[in-house]
Predict the 3D structure of the following.
Amino acid sequence: MKNKSFLFWLSLSLIWMGVIFAFSHQAYSGRISEEYLGEANIPVRKLAHMSEFGLLYFLYLKSLLSLNGEVQKQRRWGWLALVLVFVYAACDEWHQSFVPGRSSQFNDVLVDMLGAVLTALLLLLLGKLLPPKPGLKDPSVQ
């Protein structure tokens, strides 16, 4: 049933958004991780952001595809998922501006988006968004 599938993927998306919010709400987390990671702090944190938002893109995409997985709409859903990730990334950065010891920079939104775009490209390369034949439904969407 489409509704159950949509609710499942939407629930996972909302849970993951909550996880991202919780990470963003940690005061002085950059300083704390720098104590442990030293020089690797910034690259590790940027890769973590890319991974977080790459997964969020995937969850948004699966939610949207579960509504209507027709091949003609798959790319449109992919673009919409990217827009949704951008909106959440921007809101996440704004939220961080209120957390002690955290900063809010548009460059971080771009890093988050890079994770989403790389995930989208990976899915394209794996053939998940390329239509097998016109008029067919995606077999992975039920």
